[in-house]
Amino acid sequence: MAIQALTKEPFNMVIAGVGGQGNVLLSAFVGNALLNKGYMISVADTFGVSQRGGSVASHIKISKDTLYSSVTLNGQADVLLGMEPVETLRVLGEFGNPEVITIVNPRPVYPTGGVSYPDLEKVKEAIEQLSAKTSYVNATEVALSMGNPILANIILLGALVGANLLPINKDDMMPILEERFPGKILETNIQAFEKGMAMIAEA
Amino acid sequence: MHKLLTDEPGKKTFLLGNEAIARGAVEAGIAFASTYPGTPSSELSLNFFQMSKESDLYFEYSTNEKVALEVSAAAANCGVRSMAVMKHVGLNVASDALMTLAYVGVKGGMVVLTADDPFMFSSQNEQDNRYYAKISGLPMLEPSSVAEAKEMVGYAFELSEQLAEPVLFRTTTRINHSTGVVQFGKIRAPKTKGNFTKDPLNLVTVPAVSRKLHVKLLEHYDQAMALAEKTPYNFIEGQGVWGIVCNGVSYGYVTDAVKELNLTDRVRILRLGFSHPIPEQMVKKFVGECEKVLIVEEGEPYMEESIKALAQEAGLTLPIRGKGSDLFTRLYEYNPSQVRDVISRYFGVEDRTPAPVDVSDVPELPQRPPTLCAGCSHRATFYEVRKATEGMETIFPTDIGCYTLGLLPPLSAADFLICMGSSVGTAAGFSKVTDKKVVAFIGDSTFFHSGIPGLVNAVFNNHNLTLIILDNGTTAMTGHQPHPGVDMKQLDMDGYGQVSIEAVVRAVGVPHVTVIKPYKVQKSIEAIKEAVNFKGVSVVISQETCALYARALKLPKKKPFAVGDKCKNHKDCINSLACPAFYIWEDRVKIDATLCTGCAVCAQICPERAIVPAKLSS
C-alpha cells in the first residue's frame, strides 16, 4: 500500500543516469501517474541524442497544488533514483542532504575513451554515507536474465513504486504501462515492474 | 489519433514544453509549419510532422532555416496561419529573410519560434536571441512555464494578425525540455488555403517601396508597445519597495526564492512575457515605486540596459542591477539555488540554504562527455581517415552533427568548427594559407543545409581539399529527421522527391568522387588515400545507416562480437576506436554484448583476429 500523501511540499525526486538509459521515459511514467492522482508536477530532463553516453538527470517536483519551477534546489532532493552508481554519486554531491533516500542500480556503465572507473565498492560506500537509506536493485542483471537489458528501467520503476515513497501504487501505474506498451510486450513489462517491486521489498 | 489532436477541451495532460507549444499552435488553427531541426526545438517540429500525416496541417522539413522561414512567410502572406521553428543559431541563417519580412509583414498570423540554449546543452554558442527582436523591430513573447507556453502561442497568432507582423516566440531549453501539466483548450478549425493578392508596391522590396515600409514597421512597433502595456502577459505581483524584474524561466526561480526567503510582502515582481517592445510606461511606473531593483534574466543584460535607460528618462536614481561580478553572470543557464543566493545577498536577507553535503570522502568521478554510439559508422570513417593520412600533416575542419564528437581522442578528427556548413568553407581558407593536407567532414543533412555553396566555391576557386561527406541516411543528432537525400518511402511516405548527394557532388564539377562503405575498413582506407593524394577538390561519400536509426527502422540486426582466446591484450581496439561497447575488466578488454551492434570494425583491426562473433549464451 502506498503512502496517501506527500511527506514534504514540494517533494523533490531526481533520476540520475547515463544518456540512453531511459531517464526521460521514467520521469514521464512517474509524472503521468501522479497527474492522474491530481498532483501538480514539473519535470526538467536532460535530453537528446547529443547527450547519448553523457551524464543525465531528470528533476521531478511534486506538489499538492502548486506549480513550481522545474529544477531542484541544491541539497533538496528527497528521493534519488540512480540508474548508474557513479551518476548517483554525482547527483548526491549536488542535490543530496542527510535525509535523502537513494535507490540505485549498482551496475556500472563504463565511460569511453580509456577513462577509468573508480572502485565500485568505494562508490557504493560513498553513496551509503551520503544517503539516509540506500537500497540496491540489480535491475540490469535481472533484465538480462529476462532477455532484454532495456527492461532495467521498468524494474527500477517497480522498485521506486514499491518503496512507498510516492503517493502512487501499482494500480496507478498499470494504465500507464498499458498505454505505453501495446500488445505482447505489455506482459513482459508488467513482469519486470513486479520484479522491481519484489526486489525493493527484499532490499 | 495523435495525442495533440485530441478535441477534449478541459482535459489535463502531462506534456513536454515542445508538445505544449505544438498543441497551442493546433488550438490556434495553425495550417502550415516548416523547420530545419535543431535542439532544443526538435520535438516541436517532430510533433508537427507526426500530426501532418493525420490532419490538414501542412508541414515540411525545409533544407535550412532560411528556406523554412521563407516558405512559412509566403503562406502567411496568403492569410494562412503559419509557424517557422528553429533553434537560436538557426535564426542567424534565417535572419536575412526575417529582417525584410518585418518590412513586408504578414496577412495571416505567423510565429517564428527561436529556441535558445543557455549553457549550450547542444549548441555551439549561447547567443541571446532577444536581440533579434530589437534588430528586426518585431514583437517578442517569452513564456515562463510549459503551461504558459501553450497559451502564449495562441496569443502570438492573434498578436501577429493584429499587427500584421510576424511574432518572435523565444523559448529556452528549460521550457522546451521541461514537462508540466497542461489543460487542453478548444481547437480552432484551420484555414488551409490562402489567397495571394498582387500588391507589388507593398510587397516587392525595391528601395522606394522599402522606404515606405520602414515607416510602416515603426508604426507597428508603436502599436506593439501600446499592446505590451496592457497585455496580461506583462504583470506585476506582490508588494513592497524591493523590485525584481524577470522573464522566461527566471520568473519561476524568482517566485520560488521569494517564497522560500519569506519575502512575499517585501518584494514586488514585474514579469515581462511580452518583452519587446518593452512596455515603457509600465516599467517606469514599477521602478518609480521601488527603492531598489534587481533584474533576473539569463543571458545578456537585455532588459537591464533598457530599464536603466528608462529610469534615467524618468529621472529615477535608485539602484538597478542585474549583471555583475557580485551578482548575476552572463554565462550559462541559471538555477534556483543561484537565483535565491543573489536575491538574498542583493536585498540583504538571510539565506537559510543548508550547507552542501561533505563530499571530501567521495572518490573522484570520471567525466562522461557525450560520445559516438557503439557501432557508429562515423567512428569507422574517422579511424580510416586517420589511417589513410598517417604521417601527413593534416587539418580537419568539421561541421555540426553527431560527428563533431570525433574531436575527442583517440579519433581526434576535428580541428575547427564555427557553424553549419563551415567545414568546407574554412577548409578552403586553411588549404590556401598552409601547406597541410586539409580533410573536412560534413554530415548529409548539413551538406544540404549549407555545405553545397562551400563546395561550389571550392570547385570554382580550385582549392586543394578533401571533403568527407558522412552520409548516415538521416539527420541523426536531432532525432532522425528526414533530409532531401532520404528515401521517404522507407518511412511509408509518398509524394516526395529524393536528391542524390553523389549526383549533386558530380554535377557541381568535383573532379574526384568516391563512395565508400565505412564498415569495410581496408577498402575504405585505400579509397581515402587516393582521395587525399588527389590534387584539387576530392569528395568521399561514406555511406552507412546511423546505428540507432537502423534499429528504429527495424533493419536486420547483426550479432554482437566478443573478445576471444586469441587476444594478446594489445588493446589496439579500445585504444584506437574507443567504442562504448568496450570496457576494461581486470586489465582485459571486454565487449558489452548489450551495446555491441556487430559492425565488426574492431574485428577487422585486431592484429590477432581475436574479436569474433559472440556465442549466444553470453
Description:
The complex is a heterodimer of chains A (203) and B (618). Chain A has helices spanning 23-36, 85-95, 120-130, 139-145, 152-162, 170-180, 185-202; strands spanning 11-18, 40-45, 55-63, 79-82, 101-104, 133-136. Chain A has a six-stranded mixed beta sheet with strand order 2-3-1-4-5-6, sandwiched between helices. Chain A has 203 residues and is α/β, with parallel strands linked by helices. The model of chain A has no long low-confidence stretch (mean pLDDT 89). Chain A has one domain: 3-Layer(aba) Sandwich (Pyruvate-ferredoxin Oxidoreductase, domain 3). In chain B, 37% of the residues lie in helices and 17% in strands. The mean pLDDT of chain B is 95. Chain B has 21 helices and 23 strands. The relative contact order of chain B is 0.08. The longest helix of chain B is centred in the middle third of the chain and has 24 residues, at 207-230. By secondary structure, chain B is α/β, with parallel strands linked by helices. Chain B has four domains: 3-229, Rossmann fold; 231-347, 3-Layer(aba) Sandwich (Rossmann fold); 377-489 and 496-552, Thiamin diphosphate (ThDP)-binding fold, Pyr/PP domains (Rossmann fold, 3-Layer(aba) Sandwich), CATH 3.40.50; 561-616, Alpha-Beta Plaits. In chain B, the strands form six sheets. Chain B has a seven-stranded mixed beta sheet. In chain B, a hairpin with a 2-residue loop joins strand 21 (582-585) and strand 22 (588-591). The chains are: A alpha/beta (203), B alpha/beta (618). Chains A and B meet through helix 1, strand 2, helix 2 and helix 3 of A and strand 1, strand 8, helix 10, helix 13 and strand 21 of B.
